[in-house]
Amino acid sequence: MVWIGVLIPLKMKILLFIMLFFVLGALLIISNNNLALIDRGNFNTFSDLYVSWLNGVYSNTYSLTGKIIQLDWLPKK
Length: 77
What we know:
Layout: H1 2-32, H2 40-70
């Protein structure tokens, strides 16, 4: 029962970090491309750029995970 009190805040912190990562990514895309999201064309441009960025995050995570799995983690005898 003691661990429930410790795990809930940890899960919330992880969720907050992930949400902050995606929001900051969106803000960087908006500011670096000078997009005003009021305009429909700018919103479409933002959507394309954000999906492209998410695809890059996914592919980099996939690649990094594959490389980590291939590493030899056992000590040398």
